[in-house]
Amino acid sequence: QKQSSIVPDNGTLFLVAVQDYPNLETYMLPAWGRVQHQTVRSSPSSLPLWEVSFTSAESKPDFFIRKYLANDLAHLFEKVKGSTYLCIQLPHSSTPVQAGFVCSNGFTYTAELNSDSSGIARVPLAALEQTTTALLPVAYPVFMPRYFTPKVQLPFEMQEIETLEIRIKGTQNKPCTVTLGAVWIE
C-alpha cells in the first residue's frame, strides 16, 4: 500500500504549500493583464505567504490558479473520503475569492471564501456549488467560448476531484491583491 507523508493520522491532506504557487498553472480571462507575484513574510518567525496582484483593462477579469490533483488523490482517497472542509490560508484579499474543484466530468464546484480571525477560510465541501467552468488553457481560435455553462445540475462527488481551482474576481482597471498560504482538506 502506498503511503504519503502529507496525510497525517487526522486525515488532513495538504494540497498546496506556499513554495508550490510559482509552479502552478495561472490564467486570466477574458484576456491577460498585468500580473505580479512574490513570496512575503510578515516577520522572520512567520511562515511565508504568496501574494499575487493583477490588473486588467478587460471587463470582469478573473485570475485562476489551478493545480492538477487526480494522480495524488487516487491513492489517498480512502484516507480522506471523510473530509468535510476545504481550507485555505487567506490572510488578505482586496477582492472576492472563490475556491473549489474542477471534476473529471468537466464541471466546476466552488464557494466564496471568507477568512476567520486567524486568516483561514474553511469551506464545507457540502457548500460547493456547481458553477461555470473556465475552458483553460484558452482554446485556439480565440473566438471560441471561454466558459462552459452546464445545462444539468450534478452533485459534487469528492472521488471525481481532478483539479484544485482558486478563482480571484477582479475589477476593470483596478489593482487586485490576494495573499495566499497553504491549501488543505480536513
Salient structural properties:
single chain, mainly beta, disordered N terminus, globular
Q: What's a concise summary of this model?
A:
This protein is mostly beta strands and 186 residues long.
Walkthrough of the structure:
The chain has 186 residues and is mostly beta strands. The protein has two helices and 16 strands. The protein has helices spanning 70-74, 77-80; strands spanning 13-16, 25-29, 34-40, 49-55, 62-68, 85-89, 92-93, 97-103, 108-112, 120-124, 129-131, 133-134, 147-148, 161-169, 176-180, 183-185. It starts with 12 loop residues before the first strand and ends with a strand.
What is the topological layout?
Layout (H helix, E strand, L loop, with lengths): L12 E4 L8 E5 L4 E7 L8 E7 L6 E7 L1 H5 L2 H4 L4 E5 L2 E2 L3 E7 L4 E5 L7 E5 L4 E3 L1 E2 L12 E2 L12 E9 L6 E5 L2 E3 L1
Antiparallel strand pairs: 1-16, 2-5, 3-4, 4-15, 5-14, 6-10, 6-16, 7-15, 8-9, 8-14, 9-11, 12-13
